[in-house]
């Protein structure tokens, strides 16, 4: 756990969009719950929401809510929702709204009574804008949370992972773990991104086969044990 953080938890982000953040996040939340953590989930801003029954429905936030088995209102989990499938600040601008970083920080930290673990999911990659005045990395820093960085386990994944680690370092962030997520079933059997990453970083690496969750219980134990 980042020693500067007063709140136990993680900020889950990725090296790109569409690489399985919510898939990994929901299973990690379930694993933490199985290990006795009372998890509060937050997706402070979500874009690309579809309108249903007169209200924008945030699919990722709904998945996190279900994974946590929480009774927290969806408005608490995800207060900032936008229709356009763009970065949250751009989508907010198109909707005639403001989205300052301070508001996202307040939303992520609000209403945590009864929880002992905070799981915050960003939007897009680590260096994607999430607020009009900040990136995902800036929000993680404002929250004082360590990162779990999801990386697609494919050709080019090593470069993306190392660039993500470098970005985290520039922002003074601790990366608790990398999760190599195999986003497609087909892959080069000779590829071994985990081994190559081990030669270039000292960050723990967890590997997920396509659609599998093996390894997330071990990640949950690592995360939960790091603050004790």
Task: Note down, in words, how this protein is organized.
The protein has 228 residues and is α/β, with parallel strands linked by helices. It is 36% helix and 21% strand. It has helices at 21-34, 59-68, 74-77, 88-94, 101-109, 136-143, 157-170, 193-198, 216-225, and strands at 9-14, 39-42, 45-46, 50-52, 55-57, 80-81, 117-121, 129-131, 134-135, 147-152, 175-181, 205-208. A hairpin with a 2-residue loop joins strand 8 and strand 9. The chain starts with 8 loop residues before the first strand and ends with a helix. Mean pLDDT is 93; it is low at 1-5.
Number of helices: 9
Unreliable stretches: 1-5
Q: What's the rounded overall pLDDT mean?
A: 93
User: How many beta-strand elements?
Assistant: 12
Give the overall silhouette. globular
β-strand amount: 15-25%
Radius of gyration: 17 Å
Q: What's the helix-strand series?
A: EHEEEEHHEHHEEEHEHEHEH
Helix content: 25-40%
Report the biggest beta sheet as strand number plus sense, adding barrel if it closes: 6 strands, parallel
For the record, give the distance between the C-alpha atoms at the N and C termini, rounded to a whole number.
Answer: 9 Å
Trace the largest sheet across and list its strands.
2-7-1-10-11-12
Please provide a brief summary of the model:
The protein is α/β, with parallel strands linked by helices. It has helices at residues 21-34, 59-68, 74-77, 88-94, 101-109, 136-143, 157-170, 193-198, 216-225, and strands at residues 9-14, 39-42, 45-46, 50-52, 55-57, 80-81, 117-121, 129-131, 134-135, 147-152, 175-181, 205-208.
